[in-house]
Each structure stands twice: as structure tokens, then as C-alpha cells.
Amino acid sequence: MKIKYILLFFPLALLMAKCQEKKSMTEKNTPEYTNKLINESSPYLLQHAHNPVEWHPWGDEAFEKAEKENKLVLISIGYSACHWCHVMEHESFEDSLTAEMMNKNFINIKVDREERPDVDQVYMNAVQLMTGSGGWPLNCFALPDGRPVYGGTYFPKDKWQQTLTSLKGLKENDPIKLEEYAKNLTAGIQQSELIIRNEDPLETKVEFLAQRVNEWSKYWDRKKGGPNRAPKFPLPNNYQFLLEYSSLSGDQESMDFVSTTLDQMARGGIYDQIGGGFARYSTDELWKAPHFEKMLYDNAQLVSLYAEAYTATQNPRYKKIVQETLAFIKRELTNKSGGFYSALDADSEGEEGKFYVWKKEELKEVLTADEFELAKEFYNVNNKGLWEHGNYILLMDENSDDMLSEDITLANKLELVKSKLLAHRERRIRPGLDDKILTSWNMLMIEAYLDAYIALGDEQYLQVAEQQMKFIFTNLITKDKGLFHLHKDGKSSINAYLEDYAFSISALLKMYESTFDESYIYQAETLMNYSLKHFLDEESGMFWFKSNKDKQLIAKKQENSDNVIPASNSVMAHNLFLLSKLTYNQEFEKTGKQMLSNILPHIEYGQSYSNWLRLYLYETYPFYEIAATGKNFRKLTTVLRKTYIPNKLILGAENKSDLPLLENKFLEEETIFVCQNKACQLPVNTVADAIKQIN
Prior knowledge:
The protein is an alpha+beta fold. The model is unreliable at about 1-25 (pLDDT under 50). The chain contains 26 helices and 21 strands. The relative contact order is 0.08. The strands form 7 sheets. It has a 5-stranded mixed beta sheet with strand order 1-3-2-4-5, sandwiched between helices. A 4-stranded mixed beta sheet has the order 19-18-20-21, with helices on both faces. It has a 3-stranded antiparallel beta sheet with strand order 8-9-14. A hairpin with a 2-residue loop joins strand 10 (about 345-350) and strand 11.
């Protein structure tokens, strides 16, 4: 009987032990803290969901709580791939003592700048006015009504605690001073970057362009490319303008600078020599040591830039950069269900760049002895490539391209080395993925695929662009035929901003030039009319960043300066210019010219207005509308597209079109019409003859 009881007890005890083990594991894996960000979809906000800080998402609830409790608001802004955001989180936001200070005295709001660029604009502007600089993480303190009083970027832990204490004291002891700060600062934000209507008619002069380029050139690094300082950001719109300017003006100095910059970036550590794609920026003057995050918008614009440069120069290295970067996009930033993801983190396993750098010993383990010697030579596994803690950043020398082009066997061996290293790297713990899908950035990447298709002729690139465009217009359309800004986990949300409409229209127009399907023009026209209705500031003639359908912040903002991404207003001005050529819509033409006229008095530095200068270029030099018609018109347009003519718009149709420029231009044989301002020269039958009419 005793044995029976023992036997009965044993499985029961085992079961209890298993339950206890499971309970312990659950307790171990359960986060100690959870805040209101846990219900958000943003990868960046979710990174902070288990901070001891009582974070709130942006919204009325947080500000109402601040008003009720008479507390200052902390608005902390960043993005998921931001290295210094991670650093500040680890030092301060994960620290229980610091969190206690924040929770007791402030209402704390976390904002994903990529989800809410409108919020970022306002408070970045505030911090720039206060400190003269900006960046992320962005930390701005405000009154309960949202008006800022103090801010900065990254704060070390001790400085952050001092700041918290000082602001708490100021709130308690001198609230009138805070009110005065808020009043003056808000007034500055409201006036900052606002454009006044220029009543003078638009005048264009070649000298104006030459002066801006000449002044800009004083800050060029002619040996390594980019600006003559560190850090170095790849600013594709800068080099796109200079490439086109050099072609139209004959300025060889600008062309040399662009070539140097593109070559040095392609050889440097900022470019992933193994897996393709570009990092966010270089921390040094050599393009060697990047901040390792990879952003969709950077890579999209750089693909477009290298594709255009390839068309202009036929440099095979540029073609390879386009192919490798798009391979990276397909492999790592493409959602199988549709859309492109936003970013890859700079960090993995808590270390910046760990996924991308190499130890010499690891290279020796992965490669044969001969392969290692090859990698050592071509990727600078030496003092030149040495970075930190015995890690090497792989980068190439200036003579590498020539050596590889002259020796096919050598080139094939290096490709094998690359494939081995890539396969090995894929087994590492990967950087975090920001898997939200943003309309604006997706449209930039769609346009990149189209630029690659036009330059390289690979039909697969066109197919991807068409599929992704279909995805956007299936999943991110609002009930009133506008756009959503964000798609995540199968849901679309947040009404689109001007940047979404600007880049969507631009991509649709590029889609027309790639396919000659006129429905894309009508889609672009519809979105432009929507933008004019909901974003246009009638007083200035510029567009607001935020729709009049949405709740406004403490300041209405316009985005006018070109930065790492061209300003949404400059892109809209380009769109109006092209649409007016395609549709003969005089209001589009008038609005676009007014925008350019408005901005001209502000163009002191070419770097900050390069996309505007591109438009000024088209208004200054002759701009050609080139129409190809007839049964085999696509053969003509393929050759035309591969001929570098920056100041052109290509139209095409076989025997029928609703476009006014193509009216009465259908002859029995394939024909090209070279037109300017709606007036066409005599038709010709070959691309060579058409080029003669342009030159």
C-alpha cells in the first residue's frame, strides 16, 4: 500500500515541479515595468515599452494629465535605428532613479519621428532656436499646452538628472519666467522658415546658378568628396543637381567633384562592401567609419543618383552599386506581402556595427588561405581598415576597380569571397528591423527601382516598382481618396503629410515615363488637386506640411529647405512643373513658378536648396518635351532614356493618346518630336537626329 501511494505521489510531484519550473521561467521573463507604449505599433515606441519611465504616446490624454497635475511635459523624440537614442535609453530611461525623477515631476511622452514628422519638425525647430543645432534623440520640455521652454539632444545621465532638477525648480519657483520662455520661443517657431509671397515675376539667369555653385565649392573636399569636414552625410539631391548642372553648363569642376564623391562613397566603409547598401553617414572625413544604421530613404535616393550617374558616365562601378543595393533592399527591407520596411538598426547585441565588422581571425576561419590574402588586399584588412577593438571595416582602394576590370579571374575570385562572407554574416545576430511601411519612403524606393530600370534596362526592376505601387494604392488610400502615411501589421493609419503626396506624385510621373501608361498621369493629377485643396497656403503660395483636415500643433510648418531628403515643397514644385508640361494645366504652371520665385531670395547656400536649384536649372536652360510615336515607339524611347539629357521629359504612344502634346503626332512610321514650351521642331525618325535638334 505504501508503494502504491509513493507511485501515485511521484507523477504528482513531478507535475508540481514542472509547474513550479514554468512559473519561475514566466516570472523571469516577465518585464519588471510596462508603460502605455505597450499598446503602440511603432518599433521605436515598443523599444521603450518596458522602461521604468511612465511613457505616454503622443495624444490629448498626456497633455490633459499635465494640465490637471500642473506639470511640465517632456517630449522625447527618436527613431528605432538611432544609436544615440539607444545610449540615452540605457543610461537614463532604464535607470530606476532617473525614471523616478521623471515620473514624479513630468508627464513623459515618447514620439517616433518617422511616424510623426510634424511633431518632430516643431520641436526640432525649437531646439535649434535654443541651441543652434539639433539631432536625435531630441528632448524638449514644454508647458501643458505644448509650448516648449527648454530642450536639447543627447544628455549624459548626470547632465540629464541636473536638467530634470533645474526645470523642476524653475517650474516651482519661477513659473512666470517659463511662461515668458514659452511665449518667445513659440513665436520664433511660428515665424521660422515661413516664406513670404514674392510678387516679382520669376527671372532666371545662368549667372545666378554659377554664383551659387562657386560659393558652395569653397566647402568641397576635392580629394575625398563630400563636404570638407566630418561627419559626412550622403546628400543625393546635392550631387544630382551638380551632375545635371555640370552637364548643362559644361562645368567640369562640378563633374569632377561629383565623380570623386560617388567613387569615394562606393569604396568606403559607408557602403556595405559585402552585402550592398549604404549606412546613414560617415563619422570621419574618409567615408570609412559609418554610423551603421541603414535607412530606406538614403538607399532609395542613392540608387537613383548612381543610376543617373551611370547614364551620364557609363562607369561600370555605378551600375554595380545600383544592382548590389537593390539586391540588399530585396533581401532585407522588402515585405513579402508588399511594401518596403523603414530601417535596420545600427546596433546588434548592444554594440554599434557588430553585425558588419570583422576580426582578422574570423576572416581566416571563413576563407581559405588564398582567399584571405585576397580579402586582405582588396578590403584593407590592415591599418587602413582597422577600426575599434581589433575590428576591421571592409573598404576598397582607388585602384581596385581598374585591377578587377582588367582581370576577370581575379574579379570572380573576389565575388566568391564576398558570397562566403555574406553567407557567414547571415548567421550572426541581426540588427533590429523597423518594419513599418511609410508612404513617402516607399515612393522614393519605387522611384529608385524605376530609375534603375531606365538606366540598366532590367525588366525585373520595373515589375517590382509596379507591384509596390499597386500595394500602396490598394492599402494606403483613405475614404476621401487621399493617402495614409503609415502601414504596419496589416493596418494603415495617420493621414498623410505633404511629403507623402509629393513623393507619390513624383513616383507616379516616373512610372509614366517608364511604362507610358497614361493612367499614372491622371493619378498624379488627382493627388495634386487633393494637395492643392488641403495643403496649399493661399497667402504665400507654398504648401503646409500638414493637411487642413488634421488637428494643428502649436505652429503650422512649411518644409522648404532641402536636407537628407529634398524638401516636400521643392518636390511639389517639380511635380507642378512636369504636370503642367504633360497636361497643359496653366494653374499648375503658375503655382510652381510662384513657389520657385518665393524661394529664390532665400537661396544663399546651394547645399540647402539643391533640389530648388534643379528646378531653376530647368527654367533657365531649354527644357525639352520629347515625344515618340508609332508602332515601335518603345525602341526609340529606350534609346532616348539611356542618352543622358537631364533637361527632358519623354512621352510616348503607339497611335492614340489623350495627352495634349501628343495630339496630331501619329504618323505612319516611328517618329520623334522634339518640343519646347508646346512648340515642336520638324519630326525625325532616329534618336541621333533628335539629339541633333537638342544640341
